[in-house]
Write a sequence for this structure.
């Protein structure tokens, strides 16, 4: 990661304050989730546990919980809605795992290799159904509108991403629209729901903005890490995006700056999907050559700053501070 | 189809009266559907048109429309909800088309061969998102509950079906639960919505029952036709279920009545999925031997009769007559 060494490392950031504030509610969220899958047929139960109980950061439901807290909410509604948010996220993960036959023929490792395509899509549908049942039980048409709009936008973003696959000449604008739709919208909705349950309409738009920007930053850094992260420390498989021919900002930047031979490399590896063992290292070196990772992180920093600004006028509280910690943590993930 | 020749052919049945009553509203349903996909990115538009505009019978949205009419409803709400029902159905079709890598390796023809697995699942998600947006725009929590419950039950039914795949010793009870969940629930919800928009709570349960029973009959006959229908006349590919190792009532009946060699045949073809070109004809002959198709049609007739009974106390009207025609039509499909 020599290219990022020129950037100043942000101050040490942690989510400790966040989790201290929402720990109890997050346990309640987990209970709602597990309650809804525990008596299910084994395949549903197994997959749901595999994904949900695998100990992710629960950042999306935590955003709903902390946003509600930041709005002074003291009731119980945010728990079920946070669970709905996590169900939608998990369903998206499962559906994103579905792979095409053409790619399997190329011997690509699949994220759904334990359960198979069909189980991934059907259990994803089941979890999505649970999300909507939770929202209907909550009974607020406003929440329902926020999350059903989010579900539609996410699906559209995923289709858009599918259409850019293997197209390294995709525009930055197009890429930003994809990550805004497939990722940032759910962060935004998660935050906005906090204001909705608290019945603080005056906070809806700034929390939504905060969510959009933190979501953009989050995805940009994810996309940077895929070409730079150390597998053990970050729990993410470096090179997944490359193997799948996914077009992310680092690729777009390296491709557009590249010469004819380099563009031929990207076309062969990402469009034709003809990849040799050493190709990932070549991809990384091309990105270093053009500072593509550093520029991606710069853009993430830009969105982090916008997220901070979105909360500028928001009343001071420990919850607000914890939300600003999320921004710092997100920025620090890049280093 | 010699085995069914012993059954009396039902009187000529047609859906003419139904479509005469709901034709205008069905055009409105199509417009709502096409409006929601026409300006979409090409892949969504293409797939949605491919499925939605392919000229199916639109039986599910027609059930919502005719049920509303039978309840004396004269407003506009049933159109958007009927479109939501069709969107849910279409999303289910797309997701049902997703195939597993293991099956592709066996060279199985796939229904999603034009667009691929991933497009099927993501565009299905998009259509599901449209369904929920339509329901939220309608603004009735009662409708939302009916359809979100249906979506969750359908997903569960699809998972249950997946788990019975290649298991010819599946019980009849288990099979009935699968078809009730994956098929009949949406027919039931489609009908119940008619009473909801008409604000006739006294008709909700009988319309729901009617829908359940007609849905059960519909699926049973579909499953019978898969082993008996003439491809050209019915527009359905005979043998699909067999190729996919799907366990339907005709299989369960032929398997349980079969001797050791015959059970070995079913295990090889459906569990191991080792199928030779002549195997489908053997499967059909084993079904003839045990009257498995005739028994399946008998059970469908039984549900048709229950559907008729569900409407027994319902006020007379041309709409009610048209609903009874649907039952006759459903029964006549078997011949």
């Amino acid at each position: 990661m020599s290219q990022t060494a020129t950037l100043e490392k942000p101050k040490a950031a942690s989510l400790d304050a966040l989790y201290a504030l929402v720990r109890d509610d997050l346990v309640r969220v987990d209970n709602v989730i597990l309650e809804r899958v525990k008596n299910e047929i084994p395949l549903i139960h197994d997959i749901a546990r595999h994904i949900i109980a695998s100990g992710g950061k629960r950042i999306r439901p935590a955003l709903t919980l902390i946003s509600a807290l930041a709005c002074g909410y003291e009731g119980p509604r945010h728990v079920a809605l946070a669970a709905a948010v996590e169900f939608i996220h998990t369903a998206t993960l499962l559906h994103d795992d579905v792979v095409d036959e053409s790619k399997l023929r190329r011997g690509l490792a699949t994220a759904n290799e334990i359960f198979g395509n069909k189980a991934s899509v059907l259990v994803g549908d089941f979890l999505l159904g649970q999300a909507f049942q939770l929202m209907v039980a909550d009974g607020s048409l406003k929440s329902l509108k926020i999350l059903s709009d989010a579900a539609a936008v996410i699906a559209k973003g995923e289709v858009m991403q599918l259409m850019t696959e293997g197209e390294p000449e995709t525009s930055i604008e197009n890429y930003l629209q994809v990550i805004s739709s497939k990722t940032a919208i759910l962060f935004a909705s998660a935050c906005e729901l906090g204001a909705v349950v608290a019945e603080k309409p005056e906070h809806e738009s700034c929390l939504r903005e905060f969510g959009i920007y933190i979501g953009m930053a989050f995805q940009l850094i994810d996309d940077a890490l895929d070409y730079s992260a150390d597998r053990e420390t970050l729990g993410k498989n470096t090179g997944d995006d490359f193997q799948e021919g996914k077009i992310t900002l680092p690729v777009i930047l390296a491709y557009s700056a590249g010469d004819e031979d380099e563009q031929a490399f990207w076309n062969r590896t990402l469009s034709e999907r003809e990849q040799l063992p050493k190709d990932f290292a070549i991809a990384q070196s091309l990105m270093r050559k053009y500072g593509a990772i550093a520029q991606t992180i710069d853009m993430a920093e830009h969105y982090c700053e916008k997220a901070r600004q979105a909360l500028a006028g928001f009343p001071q509280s420990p919850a607000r501070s914890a939300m600003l910690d999320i921004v710092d943590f997100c920025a620090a993930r890049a280093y």
